[in-house]
């Protein structure tokens, strides 16, 4: 059975690494049918620190197609990807196209596949922020609508799909999509790589130097980087907090460009370039708390038992907020400073619940691909 995997952005490399590893494990334990994975890298994130390092560290198989599509507006990017992925599908003729998350690469992959009548399997289906101004929300809602296998990380995600009329069914034969709650592949990734991943020397020195007494921050959502008022407030709040507790901020290229475009500077916050996943896991392990607008990092804070302040007006990962593990501060300076004082400064807190599965989401996805498509 052939699966065409579409990746293009940093979080997708991490998620796909989990599933690729499980495909290899599945094949090793099989006498009969094997899964042949063909990887398409769209190029959305392309440089050493945003792409290559993840393939190297996490031993993701080399992509068979490198489309090199980057640095263009949403429409042009999605359109060019659509055209090139269509060609890849026509040459590979896969039994399914596997897409991850909510980027332009996700939507382009799903659209190209559905128009060629190739089943789409979506990992991280059913997430909703209910904010259609987010490009990610548009990408994920449309992808879910045209997917045939929907792998949900949480019960909330399953309910979101139900509300949109995408009902869970264990049968695909009647034409209904299969909605399966499998847990979160990001949890699998953390569980696996935190045991084997070693950070670089520079990062280890930061972690050792400030052990347990720094915050880890990331900012890259378009709604924050492209809005001067929001970015300015975030910068001022982080600078203020960094006056008393060190903040380590690995800068996304989009944010670096936005800071320079808006003429904003940070002097007290420790700015790094984007770091690899193993560095990130070490920074998470050593920190006192997290401030972020990232989707993935909100959950990783929880995996490492660190409180998290979310620099957005809403989150898809609502269970973290419901359990008091995450607080939504938005992008107003006073609210962020207040959230740090009231919520973050308490440091590590007890986390007794298991919100994102058992660390076997990847294996369950591969098993389901085999069960649903094996006879195709
Ligand atoms: N990440 C990383 N290096 C960094 C920043 C983030 O490896 O410099 C990891 C992070 O730990 C998480 C993933 O990238 O696993 C999240 O990706 P990102 O925040 O870019 O996207 P989102 O999750 O918001 O879609």
Short descriptors:
Rossmann fold, 16 helices, binds uridine-5'-diphosphate, 376 residues, globular, alpha/beta
Secondary structure: elements and pairs:
Elements: E1 2-7, H1 10-28, E2 36-41, H2 48-57, E3 65-66, H3 74-92, E4 96-100, H4 104-115, E5 120-123, H5 135-145, E6 149-152, H6 155-163, E7 178-181, H7 185-196, H8 201-209, E8 214-218, H9 222-225, H10 228-242, E9 246-250, H11 253-262, E10 270-272, H12 277-286, E11 289-292, H13 295-303, E12 308-310, H14 318-322, E13 326-328, H15 333-342, H16 361-373
Helix pairs in contact: 1-2, 1-7, 1-16, 3-4, 4-5, 7-13, 8-12, 10-15
Bound molecules: uridine-5'-diphosphate.
Uridine-5'-diphosphate binds at residues 10-11, 14, 218, 220, 250, 274-277, 280, 294-297, 300.
CATH second-level architecture of the largest domain: 3-Layer(aba) Sandwich
The helix/strand series, from N terminus to C terminus, equals: EHEHEHEHEHEHEHHEHHEHEHEHEHEHH
- Attached small molecules: uridine-5'-diphosphate
Task: Report the sheet with the most strands, covering strand number, pairing sense and barrel closure.
Answer: 7 strands, parallel
Query: Helical element count?
Result: 16
- The unreliable regions are none
Coarse shape: globular
How many domains would you count in the coordinates?
2
- Give the helix proportion (percent range): 40-55%
- Share of residues in strands: 5-15%
Question: What name does CATH use for the topology of the largest domain?
Answer: Rossmann fold
Radius of gyration: 20 Å
CATH 4th-level superfamily of the largest domain: Glycogen Phosphorylase B
- The count of strands amounts to 13
Q: What class would the helix/strand composition place it in?
A: alpha/beta
Mean pLDDT: 94
* Name of the CATH first level of the largest domain: Alpha Beta
Q: What is the CA–CA distance across the termini?
A: 8 Å
What kind of assembly state do the chains in view correspond to?
single chain
| Biggest β-sheet: strands ordered side by side in the sheet | 3-2-1-4-5-6-7
